[in-house]
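User:
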Amino acid sequence: MDHQQPDPRDVVAGLLGDERMRAILRARDIGALFELLNKRGISTRRLAAAANISQGRLYDYVKGKVRVEKLSMFEQLADAFGIPGALLGLAARPWEPVTQPPRAAPTPEVLANTDDLAAMDAFRLADRTSGGGRLYSAVVRHLSDSVAPRLLNGGGPSVFGAAAALTEMAGWMAHDSGQDHLAARHFATALPLAQTSGDTAFAAHVAASSSHLSLQSGDPQHATHWALLGIQLAHGGPHLPSLTARLHSMHARALATLGRLGPAAQALEQASEALAAAADETHPWLSPFDQAALASESALTFADLGRYDDALHHAKRAVRLREHGRTRSLALSKITLAAVYVQRGELEEALHVGVELLSTSPTLGSVRVVHQLDSFRDALEPHAAHGLVRDYLVHFDQARRTRALLLADIMPPREGSGSGDRTITR
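Assistant: Predicted structure:
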C-alpha cells in the first residue's frame, strides 16, 4: 500500500549524491529516473501521481517510447521531486535557497584541482552532516587519482602526510558504511604512511582509530594495545591535548570492556585532565576531539561498567554539547542516551528520546547509525508487552524499512543484531 512506501522526495534527496542518479539527470533521461525510483520501492501509481501524469504516460517514458522534451515538463518534475534545477540544466527553482547549504561531497573533478588539506576539510564537513557511506568512493578516488601519483613520483614528507590523513579518513568512512574489513585495511596502511612522513602525532591518531575499530570487533585486548601505543607515540610529538584525551578515552573504553573499573575510571580522569590543558600547537590533519566527544565516550565507558547514574550524566551532557550541525554525532549521542535509559529501566524516558531519533534524516548515509538504531530496538524488544513500547516498535519498523530503501546502495546485508558497534562521535 502507498502509505507504507517512502516519500518520493525523500528517496530523490538520498540519491542526489549518487553518480548514477547524476548521470541520469545530466542525460535528462526521465524514463530511467522513474525506473530507478520504482526499484527503490515507490509504486508507479505513486510516481505518476507525484509527477501529475498518467500511469500510461509513465510507462511510455520507462520503456523509451516517449522522451520528455518540453522545458515546462522538466520544471514540473524538478518541483515535484525536489531536484535542484542545475542538475537538469535548468535555472535554480524558486524553492531553492538563495545561499547554498553546507558543502556536499566534492566531486573528484573538483578535488583534482584542490589542495589536499582543502579536500580533507570539504570531505570532513560533508561527512559530519551526510555520513560517510556515499563519500567513501570519492575519497578513495581522490587518493588514487591525485595523491598516489605524487607518492610514486617521489613525493616528500608532506605528500606522505596527506596520504596518511586521507587514508585514515577513508577508513572511518568505510567503518561508517559497515565495511570494517576495509576500515582495518585503511588504518593499517595509514600508520606506516604517517610514520614515513615523520608525523608521530598523526601516527598516534591512527592508533586511536585502530583501538576503536578493535573494540567494535570485540577485541578489547588489541584495543588496549593500540591505545597504549598511541599514548607512547603522542609523547614523542607536539603537545596536543585533544589527541592525548582521545587516546586515554579509548584506553578507558577498552579497560571497561575488560571489566577493570578502577583503571578505566582513572583513564577517563586522565582524558579529562588532558582536554583541559592548553595546546603547544595545532595539527591541521587531526579531526577534533572535544568535550562532547569525551562525554559520549565516558557515557559508554560507565555503561559498560554498570555505573548507569554516571553513564546517564555523561550521555545527557553529550547530547547537550553536540552542535546541531553534526547530524550523525547528535544521532549517535541520542542513541547512547536512549540505551542508558533502557538499562536503567526508565522506558518512558527512553521512548521520548526514541521518538526524536525517528526524525533523524532517513537519507543520512551512515550504516553505523542504522546499526545503532537496530541495537536500540533490540534492547526494547524484551519490553514489547508494555503498550507504549509496542506502539513505538511499530513506528520504528516502518521508519526502518524506509531507511533501508533509501540506503540500499550502501548498506551491506545485516548480520545478527548489529549490536557490536558502539557509539562514538566524530
